[in-house]
Design goal:
Helix 3 packs across helix 8 and helix 6 crosses helix 8. This protein starts with a helix and ends with a strand. It is globular and about 65 Å long. The protein is about 25% helix and about 30% strand. The strands form three sheets. Strands 3, 4, 5, 6, 7, 8, 9, 10, 11, 12, 14, 17 and 19 form a 13-stranded mixed beta sheet that branches. A four-stranded antiparallel beta sheet has the order 16-15-13-18, with no helix packed on it. It is α+β, with helices and mostly antiparallel strands.
């Protein structure tokens, strides 16, 4: 009953600050002694792995594989969430490596690894949507314990993982249809201290391309993304993209893994200094271009390409191969990703283009 009441209060915008402080104090007090996530408890200087159970409700239940690595000394709580989209493999594989390689005795603070947030999508090999309820897990936070399976997964992650953390990273990897150049998102909330903590995380992670987003809303009902759900609780947060077309290449898995080690060092959770990118390409105003109809998409660009205002991104064909429409860039900028597998549905993404920061 307490969990249901908490979510209802968050949705109505009541007592958010009070409950957030209470959860933060609880996480810090337990850290260095024992740390609990759901039914998993890790003693000081130890690690444990198991599952957050998501019981059956209006549809089938599922379980979320989680590891808690609790350092021998008190420090920050970092939550890393992989597999929000189940076809995005590099972060999932990277967190398995981190689990094997990280010595809890060398860690200050606590690391929560959500290995696969969206097991129905992972096992079903689906892009974007759960095969059970047809919903995008990254559009239903903070979730609903009485809702469909995606909403119940979001509720479990929100209440047990995000609420217990000081820092949150939603780790994506270019879905199975997306050819993508690695980058990360930073949301500007207008709260200087929070924005600076998130920005520092982004720089430390080590990717050379950062997209800033300014569409933030203070309305808790708008915090449907994993990153925004965390920011709404005052947690420094970002979203990373380190994958492409369902690839499990060493290069892409390595980018995600190195980013984690960089963050741990940046936050003082491990000894040593992070290795940031030598130079950053700052992008802004990222815009997703969506398909006007069902069809076959033939891309004309690759991720990382610069395009002119009105430049050709690709051509939408009908199912017989005849052109329906040329798909053009809405402004001059950089292609973050482009759909590189043929089938597209009406309203689905075809590409994303971002402006170079400071450029018209």
């Amino acid at each position: 009953m307490a969990e249901v009441e908490y979510v209802l209060r968050i949705r109505n915008g009541v007592l958010v600050a009070f409950l957030t402080v209470a959860l933060s104090i609880s996480a810090t007090a337990e850290n260095g002694v024992a740390f609990t996530v759901g039914s998993l408890t890790a003693a000081s200087g130890a690690a444990t792995s198991g599952y957050l159970e998501v019981p059956a409700g209006v549809d089938e239940g599922t379980r979320i594989p989680v590891t808690v690595i609790n350092g021998a000394a008190t420090g920050p709580v970092l939550a890393l969430i992989a597999g929000t989209h189940g076809y995005e493999y590099p972060p999932i594989l990277a967190l398995q490596r981190v689990r094997r390689e990280l010595d809890p005795a060398a860690l200050t603070g606590t690391l929560i690894l959500v290995h696969v947030a969206n097991m129905p999508s992972f096992l079903g090999r689906t892009i974007y949507y759960s095969p059970v309820d047809g919903k995008n897990l990254n559009r239903v936070f903070p979730g609903n314990p009485e809702g469909t399976v995606s909403e119940r997964i979001a509720h479990a992650i929100f209440t047990e993982v995000i609420s217990a953390a000081d820092y949150v990273v939603d780790m994506h990897g270019g879905d199975g249809n997306e050819a993508l150049r690695p980058y990360l998102y930073l949301t500007v909330t207008g709260q200087p201290e929070l924005d600076e903590r998130s920005r520092a995380m982004g720089l430390a992670f080590g990717l050379d391309t950062i997209v800033t987003q300014t569409e933030w809303s203070d309305d808790p009902a708008a915090h449907v993304y994993t990153e925004w759900a965390a920011l709404g609780l005052g947690k420094a947060a970002m979203t990373t993209e380190t994958g492409s077309l369902g690839s499990t290449s060493e290069e892409l898995v390595g980018l995600a893994e190195r980013g984690v080690w960089n963050l741990l060092r940046h936050l003082g959770m491990l000894e040593g200094e992070p290795s940031p990118a030598p130079a950053i390409v700052w992008l802004e105003e990222g815009q997703v271009i969506r398909s006007p109809a069902i069809g076959v998409f033939k891309p004309a660009v690759e991720p990382g390409f610069f395009v002119a205002d009105g430049g050709l991104l690709g051509t939408l064909l009908d199912l017989f191969g005849d052109p329906i429409q040329a798909i053009e860039a809405p402004f001059a900028g950089v292609v973050n990703y482009v759909i590189a597998t043929p089938p597209v549905s009406e309203g689905e993404p075809l590409a994303m283009v971002s402006r170079v920061a400071g450029k018209d």
